[in-house]
Amino acid sequence: MHDDRALVEARLKRVLAERIRPAVYPESVPLAVSIWTAPDEPVPVAEGLAAPRVPVASGDAWGAPWGTSWITVEGTVPEAWAGRTVEALIDLGFDANMPGFQCEGLVYRPDGSPVKGLNPQNQWVRIAAPAVGGERVLLHVEAASNPVVLDYHPFVPTELGDKATAGDTPQYRLGPIELAVFDETVWQLVMDLEVLGELMAELPPDGPRRWDLLRAVERALDAVDLQDVNATAAAARAELADVLASPAAPSAHRIGAIGHAHIDSAWLWPLRETVRKVARTTANMTALLEDEPEFLYAMSQAQQFAWIKEHRPEVYARVKKAVADGRFVPTGGMWVESDTNMPSSEAMARQFVHGKRFFLEEFGIENEEVWLPDTFGFTGGLPQIIRNAGSKWLLTQKISWSQVNTFPHHTFLWEGIDGTRIFTHFPPVDTYNCSMKGSEIAHAVRNFKDKGAARHSLAPTGWGDGGGGTTREMVAKAARLHDLEGSATVRWERPAEFFAQAEAEYPNPPVWVGELYLELHRATLTSQARTKQGNRRSENLLREAELWCATAALRTGHPYPYERLDRIWRTVLLHQFHDILPGSSIAWVHREAEATYAGLAAELEELIGAAQRALAGEASGGRELVFNAAPHGRSAVPAGGAAVAPAGVGGCTVGAREGGGFVLDNGRLRVVVDGDGLVVSAVDAASGREAVAPGARANLLQLHPDFPNMWDAWDVDQFYRNTVTDLTAADEVAVQADGPDEVAVRVARSFGSSTVVQVLRLRAGGARLDIDTEVDWHETEKFLKAAFPLDLHAERYAAETQFGHQFRPTHTNTSWEAAKFEACNHRFVHLAEPGFGVALVTASTYGHDVTRAVRPADGGTTTTVRFSLLRAPRFPDPCTDQGVHRFRHALVPGAGIADAVREGYAIGLPERRVTGTAREVRPLVEVDADAIVVSAVKLADDGSGDLVVRVYESGGGRARGRLATSFPLASAVRCDLLERPWDGARCEAVADGDGVRLALRPFELATLRLTPAGRA
Ligand SMILES: [Zn+2]
Predict the structure, then answer these.
(1) Cα(348) to centroid of ligand 1, in Å?
(2) What DSSP string describes 443-495?
(3) How far apart are alpha carbons 135 and 77 in whole angstroms?
(4) Residue 831: which of 849, 856, 855, 857 has the closest Cα?
């Protein structure tokens, strides 16, 4: 037989596009349209409904960037349509090729009740089935003219990303707005032909099924009268019935589909718009759940549920009902789909605490699956946090975006730094916006790496980010793919059902140990430095506020600010969303984030101040007390307590260096700064070892061009290193402080359009060289690094992460290591050879790189650590990081891991001085083992007055110790992160009067609920 595939396939394409799809709506009449544009920000629904309208017509321009317009459509169902299915079609000016990222609407009835959302691929509103002739139609649309920031001119700088700079040029033109007859038979024919046509294209040309489908499609097209599609659609469908009824092979891959809309909590739109995006999409999905009995929908991010609850209570009522019916599935158990690289130990824990608590309180549901499809990499600390939150499964697909290496598994056990293993699934469909296309289903089958051992994967299905979620077309396609020869089978499945079955089917999955590093978006560790700094400052202040408020509550009866702390935590957690903390949002988002963080800092300072004053007593006639919120004692002030300010120990000197520069010494460290203000020597007195590599200079600022191929705020491409300028010229190198307790040298430089002032400081008795940097940054598309070439030979280095540290190689033997050319640390990077180590600690810099070189002169190894200080990408925020920034870093020669941990905490938690009559504030708890670090001290969330203390083993070894309480202890219970008694803990907490004995595995975290005696 002749091969006529191309002919039939081209015929199918043209007839579908030009005759069959247009026949879905065979008759239409225009609706009358009128509009009112809100003067500024969105207005309440009642105000929008009541505002006076002016007439407007299809083709008219509307919608300044970020504006809100209320559009009314009205008309009458023609008498001739009685008994037929009638829909309103409302085209706000959509580009259907871009489902999301543009204008959107939410449709209301005249009484203000929401109907559904309007999105590029979801423009219909069902009016009646069957219709009554003469029926009045009146609907109102709250339309948001969000500008297209990304798709048309990807990564070209634009002023559209902030209302303040976006201008007022209308962004859209109204498309057709009409009332139409919906011919369901033709629509079903479209679905049949799309499913079979798409499946056909994926089948092997030498197999019989492909030809069966081709001939059936041909017969169906023959049956269509091109002049009267509506009358012949049923006959065409009949020709397809047999091939659609032929069942899938018993060995077919099984796809669990779950309705989904990945809605970024802020990104190319501000937070306030996400509130409305969620409402529109959710209105669509609750409506679709009513229309389609098999369909299931999952939504993550407790924050998004909380927004609907607060802002769109009518939509929330529909959500609550659908959740109660088991069809709208809250998933993920986190407050938002956060970044996981940068949040601190506590913040990562609280993402689960607040997410799970919300879902439990609102719906009585506890998720065991973690849902992070789009997060930019996953730390080795995360598995233990997931387990301690009471969860056991993880879903992401983001690692499929890696530039270089293909991840070897789709279903596997992921092992974290402490040995916790989490059953993890990467959907092989490689998207969280599956649309049930044949090519997607076939890709999932081919791509699935675990064939032979497993045959089940998950497909999150629906348009996100303003695309409106799952469409009725996707549901129709899923129904046809339920059991279809040649295809994977598809059925709607809740994430937890999928995981339970996938786990049961795959008893011995492969294991991946350590972080899930995303080989892309590496610059998200650096972009928008002020957002990152605000996050870190908030995390530190929350630690202090909880500690001092809990101490004051137990000691003085000072009221514990439960609700304020909860609210502040939730705001911090929201801003850890995977496009805010990573710095990949528009200018509006980051401008607001900076202001929000400033407000949180002021509020937390107030809470801390009030608690400390309650503890210190009457200020008048008092003396200065030093409060220490760090988990280690310092300057004779105990960890978590306060003591009278100790006298200085002195011993600091600074003198001129021969040939220019200065020598700073405090007895522990001797640092030489040359005439260019660079560190040419840093000697640890205890070991006598030099930290700086011979012939090299440390704290060297280096400037690279930084213009990635795409994703400007997200990406730094490896070629950036090919060009570098060392900023060695100094405008000034001078002594800034010269006292017995502190010596400092000030170095000023200028480069390009920018200036930088650094102060290098030694303090009496201190183990570190502090480096304070103030940059007035006015570069574009540049990357600023601070380099520390160290005389160290090390195969690997440690970088702090949540509840411990993870190791990375210093070499690039394989493509996997070479791809990690920019990586994340929390407060320290530590390198060591036996007997000597060096730590670099940082207050708020997350990005860094580590490289090694062998010196020709002496054969020694120079290992260089570089902190990534600033970038200046121009998309999506054209002014990213312009202006003044302040950083604090430190070099700690002679440091072991314990020193790195201690100095990392110390640099972010400076002592506070408060005047009062108290002689001391005894810590509530003290731990007698150096490696066991207190991560949080707080009152229990349940308001019982119990004290909750979280500790972890910080060195990577085993630790035994005793946590002593300074109050009589009635009981101690080992808990999960939600402060519930936890039998999953492998070690017991044993109370012994006024303390608890602890034995912890490497990096193990333990949450203890301590009930004071007399209150139990
Ligand atoms: Zn996302």
Answers:
(1) 18
(2) HHHHH-TTTTT--EEEEEESB-TTS-BS-HHHHHHHHHTTT-TTS-EEEE--H
(3) 5
(4) 849
CA 266 – ligand 1 centroid, Å: 9
What Å distances lie between residue 312 and 119, 304, 309, 723, CA to CA? 18, 11, 6, 53
Kindly write down the DSSP assignment for every residue of 170-237, as one continuous string. Answer: --EE---EEEEE--HHHHHHHHHHHHHHHHHHHS-TTSHHHHHHHHHHHHHHHH--TT-HHHHHHHHH
β-strand partners of 477:
none
- Collect all residues with Cβ–Cβ distance below 8 Å to 508 and sequence separation of at least 6: none
Tell me the CA–centroid distance for residue 848 and ligand 1, in Å.
24
Residue 484 CA to ligand 1 center (angstroms) comes to 32
Q: Determine the 3-state secondary structure of 872 from DSSP.
A: coil
Nearest CA-CA partner of 855 in 810, 795, 792: 792
**Cα separation, 92 vs 74, whole angstroms:** 15
pLDDT digits (tens, 9 = 90+) for 590-607: 999 999 999 999 999 999
CA 846 to ligand 1 centroid distance, Å? 20
Mean pLDDT value across residues 325-343: 98
Checking DSSP bridges between strand 732-739 and strand 920-921, what pairing results, if any? unpaired
CA pair distance 75, 929, nearest whole angstrom: 77
Q: How far apart are CA 708 and CA 403, in angstroms?
A: 13
- Residue 442, Cα to own-chain centre: how many angstroms? 29
Q: Alpha-carbon distance 337 to 199, whole Å?
A: 34
CA gap 799, 956 in Å, rounded: 12
- Report the separation in Å between the CA atom of 664 and the middle of ligand 1, taken as the mean of its atom positions: 48
Q: State yes or no: cis peptide before 373, omega within 30 of 0.
A: no
Closest by CA position to 100, among listed 433, 413, 322, 554: 433
The 10s digit of each residue's pLDDT in 299-309 is: 999 999 999 99
**Rg of the Cα atoms in the chain:** 31
Cα 407 to ligand 1 centroid, rounded to whole Å:
20
221 and 15 in contact (C-beta within 8 Å)? yes
Q: Output 596-602 pairs: Cβ under 8 A, ≥24 positions apart.
A: 596/534, 596/571, 597/531, 597/533, 597/534, 597/535, 597/537, 597/538, 598/534, 600/534, 600/538, 600/541, 600/568, 600/571, 600/572, 601/534, 601/537, 601/538, 601/541
Quickly state the pLDDT bin for 871 (edges 50, 70, 90): very high
Structure tokens at 352: 């689960």
Residues 449-479 have pLDDT tens digits of 999 999 999 999 999 999 999 999 999 999 9
Cα 718 to Cα 519, 707, 791, 810: the distances in Å are: 11, 10, 25, 16
For strands 393-395 and 421-425, give the pairing: parallel
> Annotated catalytic sites, by residue?
374
Runs of H (alpha helix) within 249-344: 271-291, 302-311, 313-324
Residue 603 φ then ψ, to 5°: -70, -40
Cα 264 to ligand 1 centroid, rounded to whole Å:
5
CA–CA gap between residue 88 and residue 914 (Å, rounded): 67
Alpha helices in 341-451 (DSSP H): 345-363, 382-388, 438-447
CA of 336 to the centre of ligand 1 (A): 11
CA 616/CA 488 separation, integer angstroms: 69
Show contacts of 124-129: CB within 8 Å, 24+ apart. Answer: 124/87, 124/88, 124/89, 124/90, 124/182, 125/87, 125/88, 125/89, 125/90, 126/85, 126/87, 126/182, 127/77, 127/86, 127/87, 127/88, 127/179, 128/77, 128/85, 128/86, 129/84, 129/85, 129/86, 129/182
Say how many Å lie between the CA of residue 468 and the centre of ligand 1. 15
Determine phi and psi for 608, rounding to 5 degrees.
-65, -45
Q: Give the side-chain half-sphere CA count within 13 A for 870.
A: 27
Distance 816 CA to ligand 1 centre (A): 25
Could you tell me the pTM of the whole model?
0.98
